[in-house]
Amino acid sequence: MGVFSASAMGLLVGVVLWLLDLREAAAWSWRIGSLIVGVPLLVTVVRGLLRRDGGVDVLALISIVGALALGQDLTAAIIALMLGGGQLLESFAERRAGREMSALLGRAPRVATRYRGSELEEVALGEVVPGDRLMVRHGEVLPVDGVLASARAVLDESALSGESMPVTHARGEHLRSGTVNAADAFDLIAAAAAADSTYAGIVRLVEQAQSSRAPAMRLADRYAGWFVPLALAVAGGAWLATGDPIRALAVIVVATPCPLLLAVPVAVVSGISRCASRGVLVKGGGALESLAAARSLFFDKTGTLTAGRAHLVSVETFGTHAADRVLALAASLEQASAHVLAGAIISAARERGLALEGAEDTRETAGSGLVGTVGGTRVAVGSVAFVTSQAAVPPSVTSVLDRAVGEGTSLVLVAIDGEAAGALLLADLVRTETPRALRLLRRAGIERIVMLTGDRQDVADAVGAGLGVDEVLAEQTPEDKLTVIRAASEIAPCVMVGDGINDAPALAAADVGVAMGARGATASAEAADVVLLVDRLDRLAETVNIAHRTRTIALQSVFFGMGFSLVAMGFAAFGFLTPLHGALLQEVIDVAVILNALRVLRVQPVRASRHHLSQEDVDRLHAEHEQLAPLLDHLAAVAARLPSLSGPEASRLLGELEHRLQTELLAHEHADDREVYPAVAALLGGDDPLAAMSRSHREIFRLHHRLAALIDGLDPQTPDPQALQDVQRLLYGLDAILRLHFAQEEEIYSGLSYA
Fold this sequence. Notes:
The structure is a single chain. This protein has 27 helices and 22 strands. It is an alpha+beta fold. Among the domains are: 106-199, Calcium-transporting ATPase, cytoplasmic transduction domain A (Distorted Sandwich), CATH 2.70.150.10; 278-306 and 431-545, Rossmann fold; 309-430, Calcium-transporting ATPase, cytoplasmic domain N (3-Layer(aba) Sandwich); 615-752. Helix 22 runs antiparallel to helix 23 (579-597). The longest helix is centred in the last third of the chain and has 38 residues, at 647-684. Belongs to the cation transport ATPase (P-type) (TC 3.A.3) family. Type IB subfamily. It comes from Denitratimonas tolerans.
């Protein structure tokens, strides 16, 4: 602001003096205004030349020096004002573009409110240690990571994740520092010191991003490599042809490359800002430029393509025990275990509203399983080998085990009173938004998608097949991942996405490393060039889209400005433009290209609709599907057991299943048709955007109608084997279409929650 003001003052004072016929004083005012800009520019050019980096500043310096040398003091003053004004616009753009990132730094808390007995005290943030009980008042930023000790907390997480709606958390949930308390005060048990908390790590990343030189200037310097010599050649030719140095000066003045000097960094900084506003930190313009050029993408599986935690897929039963009974006993016993799968089993039981009992006389074999007594019933839970040593296992376990291997799931066997009663199939489920994100990435120009994982080959193949990736590389050590990324980088720019410590070497070696930083390891976030602060993979697709739009808009500004400059250089060489008129024309060109570069700030998210569902609606719809999950599991279990059941048992189970399908499933689908689909269709737009989904409903209703008719026609004592086979075929068909239909609905709802 100071340089621009000084150069503007020098120009205006000179004009006033010239009008007062004080010509020499006016000339000195213009010279001083020119030198205020010219001297710092000279220092910049000399430093660049010492680094063998002439760049685009050379022409600007030559135009000011040449104008002063030839007595064109007013022209020199206008050029200086033009450069000063451009720098002012760039500064404004950086402040405007960087305000989302700067807001993170400005919001950093300095103190915390800590309990000391029954009293509260305000302490410096550095004094907080893990285990301290803190109070977070309404409107305050959470000072450290911690566990919610109150019944409920409502947090505004927009500054970190870009999530526009407040998020409600329940007692015992882990909360991230940097979010804002949007409701009543609550208590927080500190889980980390301030320096080790999420917010401190993000602040460090922001500071790195802000201090990095926008490498897109390399783009400007590449064009300067031919533009500067061309401008000097045209100026020299005009001088030699006419003997008039003024013509040469006019050529240099209109060639002064402000579009290169300013428009490119303005576009890049705006792109980085746009990413920050969407919950993505980009550590400099080089990462953005490389992201736009990348054609191959490598993903870690666990925690990136998948959620990174086990989830109960289905409950298979072998005897007379119901699926809910098997799950409830297993979860009750697992409360005594610290195994990684125990939490998933307990969570699944609670989600289904099952009552858990205490376990007694428990004995655990590390890594294999445990046995104990739950409500007088002896229960064993664990691997096939472990449970086989504790109880009798029927041959049908083999088919379930084969299914688990084929689907890439983990199998936990459950025995009740000495007999295998069922099996729990658990898997690390693919993120809901992952298929959509991969499609958007391909649309954004990614040609090859590779899954790179340390997981087993069968598990990786199952996930890869479901997602449609181009290649699956399984059982990879960190060294293996590093070798693959280095080899890929030698062929073409590549992107690596990961979230764990073992991904850090590969992230650092890739042309662009992307870390899932919302809950990923600090090492991976530090090694990466891009950090997704919100745990959604579709934000990466949006970042790639912003990178492409940034590059496109920057190049538009460059070519527009250079094109007009080349035309103006021709007019100046033939004497149709004086240096003064050329300087004024160049000012107009500069303003136009910089305003064009600022359009990057208006790049919109990639989405099907401008409208979206609230997070509460999405959570409600997801919860409805979760409530129907046990019914789908029961349907699959009945289909699998049907051939081995006696006539009366088969009739009883089929009758109960048909009743549940009628009262639970069909009621849900009819409600979707009447209430949910019309509302979603209005958001998507078009005549009938959910026609395919409604067609699925018709097929579900048709299959149920046929199933009900077959079940009603069965002999309850000795059902016809062919009829039972038809029933089994319909059950499998209904199970397949329901799971696909639910997955499609989840993807649509998730896409509409993409705010």
